[in-house]
Amino acid sequence: MAAATVQRVYDVGILLYPGADLLDFTGPHGVLSHVSYNNNPAAPDRVFSIRLIAAHEWITASDPVTVKRHISIADARKELENFDVLIVPGGPAPAISGVVNANGPEYEFIKSFIHESRNEERILMSICSGAFILGATGVLAGKTVTTHTMALEGLRAICQKATKDFGGGQTKVMKARYVDGGVTKSGMRIITSGGISCGFDATLYLASLKTSQSASNFAAMVLEYIAPV
């Protein structure tokens, strides 16, 4: 009798910080929670294990809503090699500046994730203005990327500064629902999305990469989500 096939469960971290946009992280969380191997919403064989990462036990997001983390940044760094996907939500300008300008623990965690060496592809994905944080690290150099339509010029400025500071190629910033910027030399795929609802599209695309297009389509059907044409 053949042994049962063990399905891979991918570890996903969603990095939170004070002021993070609520839908930027609950949207992807909700999408991934509906992706399963057996396409059975009543008893799903889930593909993704999702944890909220934050510096403090309780994080006040936008609106404001207070959210409890699953794991601290300090503890997440100790098991950095276990994370297959890291999602960085956006937020208002003061919240983004608080992460980038202070070189805070969130910023340092992203840099650690970027430089973590692994033998298989990982995914770093930003939602909306979360791309500003990625851009500040220099990881978007030479990539084609996007963000909220109203923030495209701001992202260009961030990426130009990062290129001067860290080197690397010119970053192409374009208007899009989401962009797969390809894989870095270290084997990390960069995905950036536009604002809020665009994060649904990007996350469904991520799901298709890790499972199949049919599994992604089924999750969209469960969510009754139809992507804009």
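Second entry:
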Amino acid sequence: MTSQVFTHRGSWSSETRTYPALSFLELYVKKVDSGDLLGPSSDYYASFANFHNADNTTYVGGKAIWEWMRRLFGAFRRVSHEPRLITEIRSAEDGPDAESTIYMETVTHFWLLEDADGSEPAVVPRIFRFRVGAAEHSKGTQGFQIREGSVWWDTGILAKKSSGTL
């Protein structure tokens, strides 16, 4: 099977927006950064999606993933993902079986709820892997949904920030 690979250094750009799956993923990251996770999970996650967290927990189903994300990000006043490297590996297939695997290295800034305005955030390097494909009928955003996701990061950095040892 033949694949196409695109790699971009830096944040989202006019170039990354020419790739439909990357344009979708940018909207997803902006949604997460907005803190507004009240909408339906199906806007971004397939009903059958899986998400693998760094603590060896796997969340099964778009609704379970979205609920976990609400709990995770609800502990923060603000979150901001700063992409450093984005790589899309796109399958050469067409139709509903076509997928892109996207790797994204980010520096994520977390401001705790109790942090005063102007305080420094916890800054955490993170690596994500997403499998993105055609959305289920009448679901998704821009015709896409995440089918599988994984994140690797040192969650201990946030514990240190919370305890004041960072």
